Fold this sequence. Notes:
Bound molecules: iron/sulfur cluster
InterPro entries: Puta_zinc/iron-chelating_dom
Organism: Campylobacter vicugnae
Protein name: YkgJ family cysteine cluster protein
Oligomer: single chain
Amino acid sequence: MKQDGFDYEFDPKKCDECGGKCCTGESGYIWIDESEIKILGEYLGYKPELIKEIFLEKFDNRYSIKEKPYQKGWACIFFDEKNKNCSIYEYRPKQCRSFPFWEHFKTNYKELEMECIGVKQS
Ligand code: SF4
């Protein structure tokens, strides 16, 4: 898989072997917007306000998905520790869908390489 403007490609089949490194490790923000909160709420059977209360943290006017302690660091609260994957995969926010094609990694490829076994510079 390639994307315009990026000098690397990504093989999503590698996700099966990886163990979810992009959802675990160091703490970070996992931004989710109002429309994504609504869709996630419909899937989980909760009103958006309850989704915010249970699963999200507010930073100024934005929401980020909460994290939980995992191994020696952190994991997204929706990371399935048994299956090592995302428990809301079809409903995950844009930030997760667009990984590993983030602007940040255009100039930080080494960092991405440590996090994702599915990337290869082309
Ligand atoms: S929402 Fe899913 S894909 Fe995104 S960080 Fe959490 S577990 Fe990973």
